[in-house]
Automatic annotation (TrEMBL):
GO terms under biological process: prosthetic group biosynthetic process
Substrates-to-products reaction catalysed: 3'-dephospho-CoA + ATP = 2'-(5''-triphospho-alpha-D-ribosyl)-3'-dephospho-CoA + adenine
Molecular-function GO terms, alphabetical: ATP binding; triphosphoribosyl-dephospho-CoA synthase activity
EC number of the protein: 2.4.2.52
Protein name (Swiss-Prot/TrEMBL): triphosphoribosyl-dephospho-CoA synthase
Lineage: Bacteria, Bacillati, Actinomycetota, Actinomycetes, Kitasatosporales
Enzyme class: transferase
Keywords: ATP-binding, Nucleotide-binding, Transferase
Top-rank taxon: Bacteria
Amino acid sequence: MPTTRSTDDALAQTAVRALISQAELTPKPGLADTRDLQARATGTDLLALRWSAKSLAPGFAAMAAAARRPGEPTRALREELGAIGRCAEWTMARAGGGPVTGRLHHGALWVLGLLVAAAALDPGAATEELTATARQLAAHADRGAPRRPSAGSQVSATYGAAGARGEARAAFPHVRRALAALTTARAAGATETQARLDALLTVMSTLQDTGPLYQAGPPALRRVQDGARGVLEAGGAATEQGAAALAALDAELRAQGIAPRGSAVLLAGALFLDALPARARPRARGHGARG
């Protein structure tokens, strides 16, 4: 059955729910969550994150509709997605998203926009196929993109970190790793919150996250990665030792103002793919939850 506008809207709402679910996941080390309704610790108001996420729904739906028209990941489609994304950013700013919210959802627009478009291009595809389609889209240059460098691109140039664009051009390896971690934790009896925290920590443990690099350089990134690995090695969020290690890491990152926002965005991408129909979920091969 051909994809319809209602399916485009459904994909958009799935993307929005993934963003909100990621924002509400608690306790996220160094990141805004349900403890931050007044933005006391992280400088990000969770309510603003919810509102700005909802404001992106028309943009995501437009991306899905744009992908349906050519039916393949062309350069023209990539440029149209970029134009839609820039309009969606403007709408989000008008909806009340502040500077930090804007930076977080800028990355989310890139990650989820590509995945929404891939899902619209190939309904029912397996995760590996969807991320491969997203990679094809990301490989095209966007001639309409602003020429000014972003904070992420500057950090990537300085430290050689792949950033969100590098993740997309590699077919989102950390999104796939997060999905594998979700599956592993659920199978071991973890609650959904614990499984999602383990998925986030799995991303944090190996991602060259440009957020900590921008905030405090390589030592901050090493602390994020080492801390996340320590929680997982202690048994993850579902164990007493792992929960204690998670609380200690959270307190440390918050005290130092280190926020692994890139990891949070990639978790949102994983939650989006996880919420698609079962036929589009990852095949059980090749992605360790802790690697």
